[in-house]
Amino acid sequence: MLRTYADQVARRFGMTRAQWAVLKRLEANEGLKQSELAEMLDLQPITVTRLVDRLCDNGLIERRADPNDRRAKRLFLTPAAQPLMKHLDALGNELMNAILEGQPPEKTDAALAYLGAMKENLRRLLQENAEEKLEEKEKHYA
């Protein structure tokens, strides 16, 4: 429901929740590679490529050459994105205040801690599963 509501709210600015998430991550971590951004957002690289392409077309993000790897591009917000980011920050605060209305901060903090721990457990399990599959494949071809 949160995703649906966030998509509805993001439409006020002609964007999707996923585009909003890309902009917010880049605001906090300018200079990311697309692969790093995809990992942070738990999205497939091709999905991030499409999102970034769209945001570049809209003049909100730019790709710059990586000084250490000529094959790689780094992502940066453009100056045109700054006014939009202020509106999106305010909108995000409104959204979270509405969702958390009536909830004591300590319960919210505890819920976020539990959810974060579950997410890390899932990451670990996914990694372990991927490693096991690789080991099986290596044994099969050995």
Describe this structure in words.
The protein is mainly alpha-helical. The chain is 69% helix and 11% strand. The protein has helices at residues 2-10, 17-28, 34-41, 45-57, 81-99, 105-141, and strands at 61-66, 69-77. It has a two-stranded antiparallel sheet. It is flat and about 55 Å long.
Query: The biggest beta sheet, please?
Result: 2 strands, antiparallel
Order of helices and strands: HHHHEEHH
Radius of gyration: 19 Å
Strand order of the largest sheet: 1-2
Given helix and strand content, the structural type is mainly alpha
Sequence stretches where pLDDT stays below 50 over 5 or more residues? none
Summed up, the helix count is 6
C-alpha termini separation: 48 Å
* Number of beta-strand segments: 2
User: Helical amount among residues, as a percent range?
Assistant: 55-70%
* Overall body shape: flat
Give the DSSP E fraction (strand runs of 2 or more residues): 5-15%
Task: Please state the average pLDDT score.
Answer: 91
What secondary-structure arrangement, pairings included, does this model have?
Elements: H1 2-10, H2 17-28, H3 34-41, H4 45-57, E1 61-66, E2 69-77, H5 81-99, H6 105-141
Antiparallel strand pairs: 1-2
Helix pairs in contact: 3-4
